[in-house]
Amino acid sequence: MRGVSELRGGIDLGGTKIQTAIVDATGEVLGQARRPTPTDGGPAGVAEQMAEALREAATMAGVEPSELQGVGVGSPGDADEKTGTVSSAKNLPDWEGSFPLGETLAEALGTEVRVGNDVQVATEAEFHLGAGREFQSLIGVFWGTGVGGGLVLDGKPWLGRGAAGEIGHMVVKRGGAKCPCGRKGCMEAYAGRSAMEAEARRQYEEGHKTDLFKLMEKHEKPRLTSGIWERAIDHGDALAERLIDRAIEALGTGVASAVNLIDPEAIIIGGGLGIRFGERYMEPLTKEMSKHLFVDERPPAVRVATLGDLGGAIGASLLFAR
Amino acid sequence: MRGVSELRGGIDLGGTKIQTAIVDATGEVLGQARRPTPTDGGPAGVAEQMAEALREAATMAGVEPSELQGVGVGSPGDADEKTGTVSSAKNLPDWEGSFPLGETLAEALGTEVRVGNDVQVATEAEFHLGAGREFQSLIGVFWGTGVGGGLVLDGKPWLGRGAAGEIGHMVVKRGGAKCPCGRKGCMEAYAGRSAMEAEARRQYEEGHKTDLFKLMEKHEKPRLTSGIWERAIDHGDALAERLIDRAIEALGTGVASAVNLIDPEAIIIGGGLGIRFGERYMEPLTKEMSKHLFVDERPPAVRVATLGDLGGAIGASLLFAR
Question: Is the ipTM of this complex over 0.90?
Fold first, then answer.
């Protein structure tokens, strides 16, 4: 049946959750499901839950997984598009080595599976269906736990040798703050949620006042989520404000460097913090950026991602539309 | 005659000299000429000398300018490929506004003229005929008076919205040294020859010892040329060594940021300082770079440009081979 074969599955594999979607050729989501990423069972256990969540979304869309045109996966770590193997996905449980994720899922689901980088596919989703629709070249900046990036140049994904888009690890301050990646002065060392939490804790333990950790406990969160940061900012928490301002400075600087090099039409800001704070901090962000733009009279458009939580899964499904 | 029509002219317009070449379809240079860039007469005077120098090269190659397939120009400033207009070429005399360089030269030479960015066309020359021949994606880094850049992605020039490649104005240190462009912390603020000279003079006037300015006077140079820097380094001049090391640190950091974003196969180092110091400082440069590479086990190839002084003119002629 032709109609059915034009449906595609998408799986967004994150450190805390697995989001799946069944998407038609126009980008409409006909079914979706979400599960927590299992913390034991290793890569095989994760793959099993991914398959389950995809089946659940397929059921909602009234289709068998085997009838899909294919299932795309947006994965963290080093996702090899050619082989479907995912390596060193450090924010996934026990996933230090390589695992044939594409092959495993293809067997479980009875359909073709393609694996891509999570941030790159989310960027492509915004390009095709979201905030980037009117542009031919853009950089996606996903501001969350870390800061990831994706590139679309002249309407096509740019992957480089497979690892392009690491905008979070562009250096904004040589010899600067230590980054979770182990290097110094990366944009992510100032703007990533993990790095921000570590810095907040350091300052808190030094005696600086903040409600961040009280809010975290009150809302029973295991870490400083985007929502906790927002609450603290809404309460006028000075330490939270300082650290967000510092993050915005680093983002503006790093994005300007990227623009000076690539000169794209647009920057799309996504990710947990990006979606929550993008509009609110648009003015200081573009102001910081313009300080460092070489051609400052013609800045790129800066837009907040519009596909929200489903962007990753939709983008993954688009691995069958490239 | 078909053979003749396959010849192309190229003009490299620099702040101090005009270099022309007549190039055949294989990239061989059949004629060349060089003249100083006139310091009076404004853009029209410069265009006149460009036409003269091109005629001289054509005579050497035994061809009339009007018989050429066309003449390409690599220009500093804001060179608009679509209109052939060059604006705000601040290192050219009295060239603050816009000038229809392409149109003026086309009339003077009786052939089609295309205008491109000087660093971009030099990058393309290295891609097609020089140090970048074996690669499909590369970044050209031209380390001279300033630090310019050019991009070739998937075998094609990447111009962005016309201003891509400004690698010298990627930020390596937020809040850092003042750049000749007026901003702070750009790579060029540490690595450009102009910025290095300004810093050397500042330190010299503060009482730091250096032979740099004595050498400049002895060799009757108006500024600290690449050759003067080399002589000082050869003499073990400590201040010169410190400033070159500082430049190498900035270059390594900025290039690593660019690689993290684009993940190209190769980096081609050109420009006056790049050609003079590229091999000599290859080890510290790649070491600095690898400190900041996100995927450090697989660095891009780093090569020194091989077309030398003629690269710009050859690259300009290739505007007719794209």
Answer: yes
